[in-house]
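Help needed: design a sequence for this.
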């Protein structure tokens, strides 16, 4: 609940920003569908994932926040449906959005075949598989069709007079006969996130028949080669792009030394300081592109240093990355509210640091083979890596006692959303369930405290598949 309140507060304070990245759309959607399929199976509810239009392979958008919205909508559908089915539809719509308007399948049938045929017209139907040679839908009246994400259920439904209230904070859906756990913040946060994406969360519902929620988004197609990623096992030896200056602020010499030895050979110009006061003085003279700023320092701490840096016009564009041993969301929110652009936990993992530098500085890494590695070039290697991990995963499954499927499903959802604070909380909960689950919980905490989101997802996913 604390995380939800902080998210809502940050949005309302205008401090929530979208972080655009290029991501593989089919993998993104299939991952979400897999989470919901597991949840639906536990309630014996049918789940259908339907791709109604040809979709691009790669798009640009805020992957994490879009995942958060879709999992919230689909999770609600599972929660409020006791029988029947849930349908997740994705495809392009007509620019006006006319036609189906989000009506659920059961309600369409009740309106008759003629109405059902008419309401299907909003979807631009074509080849349903993403293709390498994707051709965007033709604009209508100079308006580009948008991508619709629609969730339909056959659940309890919502009374018409209450539809306007469901997006209010702390509003609980249900009636005297249907009470559900939750903060009442999920839809409020989702609506605000969708508005940040320049859209609006829409809903249609009928009591006793079900509901449908949908959003229409602009997700521009991008070429595979535009997404440059780091590849485990490939040594980074430099970067392409303008010369970059980094300022490292940390009171411990050994911490600064690790970062300097890691980054200096790659071609960065680096300056070091050991407290907040020195950081302010050096930043004015050195004019760094990015500051790695420890939050716990003498003289002036990291939070106050950040606030003072943000008041200096000469440094208004500098990127500030907070570093700290605390991985709790409320600490990270405090850092962001003070003016930090991002966060990386201690001990700093090289892979996480490289990803942040690439994202904020717009550089391309040069690997040991002198090639910039793109998605297309690592497809085969990714498959091979997966095969290599399979043996390790099998051994882990044999050694660790796995908690109940309900706990695994919750962990998988948190892992997909990148909610490190939630994962740590869930791990401690699992630890208390039974002594035999302690090794599993400790392994999870090891990943979480290193802020290793990808490793957490792979670890939990293997157990979800076993279930």
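Sure. Designed sequence:
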């Amino acid at each position: 609940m604390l995380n939800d309140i902080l998210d809502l507060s940050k949005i309302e304070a205008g401090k929530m920003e979208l972080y655009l990245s290029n991501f593989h759309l089919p993998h993104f959607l299939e991952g979400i569908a897999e989470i919901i399929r597991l949840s639906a199976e536990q309630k014996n509810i049918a789940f259908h994932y339907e791709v109604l239009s040809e979709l691009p392979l790669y798009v640009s958008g805020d992957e994490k926040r879009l995942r958060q919205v879709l999992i919230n909508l689909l999770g609600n559908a599972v929660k409020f449906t006791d029988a029947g089915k849930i349908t997740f539809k994705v495809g392009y719509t007509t620019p006006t959005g006319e036609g189906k308007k989000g009506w659920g399948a059961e309600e369409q049938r009740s309106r008759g075949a003629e109405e059902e045929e008419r309401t299907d017209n909003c979807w631009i139907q074509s080849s349903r598989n993403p293709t390498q040679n994707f051709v965007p839908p033709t604009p209508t009246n100079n308006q580009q069709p948008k991508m619709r994400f629609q969730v339909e259920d056959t659940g309890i439904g919502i009374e018409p007079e209450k539809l306007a209230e469901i997006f209010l904070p702390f509003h609980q859906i249900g009636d005297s006969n249907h009470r559900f756990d939750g903060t009442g913040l999920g839809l409020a946060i989702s609506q605000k996130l969708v508005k940040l994406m320049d859209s609006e969360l829409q809903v249609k519902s009928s009591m006793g028949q079900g509901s449908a929620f949908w959003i229409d988004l602009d997700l521009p197609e991008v070429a595979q080669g535009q997404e440059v990623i780091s590849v485990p096992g490939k040594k980074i030896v430099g970067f392409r792009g303008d010369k970059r200056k980094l300022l490292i602020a940390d009171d411990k010499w050994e911490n600064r030394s690790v970062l300097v030895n890691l980054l200096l050979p790659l071609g960065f110009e680096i300056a070091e300081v050991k407290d907040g006061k020195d950081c302010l003085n050096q930043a004015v003279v050195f004019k760094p592109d990015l500051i790695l700023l420890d939050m716990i320092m003498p003289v002036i701490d990291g939070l106050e240093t950040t606030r003072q840096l943000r008041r200096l016009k000469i440094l208004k564009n500098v990127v500030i990355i907070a570093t700290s041993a605390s991985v709790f969301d409320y600490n990270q929110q405090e850092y962001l509210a003070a003016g930090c652009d991002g966060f990386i936990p201690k001990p700093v993992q090289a892979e996480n640091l490289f990803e942040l530098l690439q994202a904020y500085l717009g550089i391309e890494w040069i690997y040991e083979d002198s090639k910039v590695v793109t998605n297309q070039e690592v497809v085969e290697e990714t498959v091979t890596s997966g095969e290599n991990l399979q043996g390790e995963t099998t051994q882990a499954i044999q050694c660790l006692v796995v908690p109940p499927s309900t706990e695994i499903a919750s962990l998988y959802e948190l892992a997909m959303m990148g909610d490190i604070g939630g994962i740590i909380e869930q791990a401690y909960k699992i630890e208390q369930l039974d002594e035999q689950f302690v090794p599993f919980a400790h392994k999870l905490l090891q990943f979480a405290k290193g802020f290793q989101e990808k490793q957490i997802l792979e670890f939990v996913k293997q157990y979800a598949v076993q279930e």
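The first helix runs from residue 2 to 12.
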